[in-house]
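Everyone, describe these structure tokens:
***
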Amino acid sequence: MATTTIYADRIQIIDELSPDTAATAESITGSWKKALVHFTLPTELQYKAITNMAVSVYTTPVGNSPYIAEVHALLGAFGTDVTYNTAPAFSSYSMMPPSGGAAGYKTGDLSYTVSGSSITRSFDVRSVLNNGIGIQAYTYQGYGDKGELSTSLATNPPYLVVTYEDSEPTGSLTGSPRSGYAQKNQPLTLRANYSSPSNIAATLTPTQYAFYWRPGTSGSYTKLYEGPNNSYEVPANTFTADTVQWYAAVWPSHGSALASGLYTLSTVEPVFSATAISPDSTLEDGSAPITFIWTASNSVGSTPSGAELQYSTDGGSTWTTFDTVTGSALEYEAPANTIPGGTIQWRVRALTNNGTAGEWSSALSFLCIAAPAAPTVSTDAAPFATFTWSAEGQQAYEVTVDGVSYGVQFGTAKAFTLPQPLADGEHSAEVRIQGEYGLWSQPGSVSFTVTNAPAGTVTLEGSFGIDADLFWTASPAGDDFLIFRDGVQIGHTAASRFSDRRAVGSHSWEVLLRQADGNYTRSNTFTGTLTAESPVIGLLSGGEWLTLRLTETSLAPQTYRYSRVHTLRHFSGAAYPVLELTPYEDLAGTLQVAFADDAQAAAFEALRGQVVIYKHRDTVLTGGLTDFTKARNPFYVAYQFTIDQIATEEVLDDTDG
């Protein structure tokens, strides 16, 4: 340690009662005086570490009162034009010991500071040397007459005793980041933070920085940068090892180079812990988008590069990945109609920047009201095409081919074979399913080309009367025949004959053998005429015909009434109503018959309460014979009855022959 004494080179009075701008060499005498005193440190001490400063001022007592002198270290600039009104505020206090009543130099150690009733030990070298020292003498009690300052630059000047180290401090250098995680595939900014020593008069400024690194914890270092900047952005993928070390260096404006500490970083990103947030125990509309939200964190606070989401429809036994999120987003909006209906569990896991997945989160569940997903449809492309599909949650289905629906079928079957063949050429089909909430899926579709491959021959013959009695031979033999009248299927049988009793007049028939592979063999076309010159009636299900040849009068009419269900509506401004037709029709026949034979009459009456078929020339009626009126004469019995046409099965299925 060494010491030196420095005398004030400027004194400026601050008079509380009469502020003025004092001359530099003004002396200070009298009470109620405060002063700013400035000291200049010799050049050779500008870069020495100062450990203590003590100021001495000459004071004279007023009377015999004991007193002390109080010294203030000021903050702010010290200028020749500073007055009491503009002087910097006193910021610290150093108390001198009591001096009794004797005049003389009183010394105060600037390392003692007082704030209120608390005394601490500190001083600011630059504040003292650059801003000046405020001084004033007080009585010991702090009231009444004060001691006065009696000093000037020429007589009893204030002086400063400086204690310093002979070494030249260089300050301190730290770097950031000092530890933690460095992402390999992202740039990383290294910073050097230099602080000039606080216990020297001058301020050191850095002139140049450098940054060094090495892979692992041993071996030589590679210089990343050298220049005037105190930061450097390390390019992405520079750090290749799992652990790297780095340090910074600085060259101050005075003294030697200074190195920071050695800092170790890890490039291995910890995996993320994910927590599912919502939806949770809610009811969600699957026909609208559903937003999934989660959190993800790891021990270094980095952001994930993505996430994987899965859902389960069976309580977590099996899981389906429904999307992968790219980036740091912590939510995902599932498009409408992508989440199936039912009780859904979902979970999420987050990915590090190298794609390493963390553990799956705990699963949350919600109830999704949604249409099932569209089925995936396939077909064998045969004329009697069979369609198969895969679907979940099916309760019903509907197959549509070339725009024609085959009706809604209830159940979980996932296959359907067309009852009639398709013509050769291009076709398209759709299958939609209905889920447990009654909502229909979007249709799954398939396009295909049909090319029939017939095998063998079918030869059709027949005999005709009131009925058409059809019979055929097939080579090779078969047992799956479809019967067509005028191009419309009317029957299906495993036998080699079929009776058609539902027509009258001239028609043409064909028989089609459905092969096991879905192709078919078509017979020749056979034409014939069914005649009913006299009215006949019989059971629709089959059996003998009963001829209704006689009536009570020779010219008694058989009356038929045809009608279309409609509505007549009147509107303002129109004298006549508007006709609104429906697709529904009615047909009723009012008929008469007389029997002279009691057996025939009994046979007719036995038809009451049965579904019958009535034929006469060009008319066929099928309906229930529900009632009739009966009139008995000595020689015959006469009946009048009505048959209302009803809907019947279009295709008779006689698989047993």
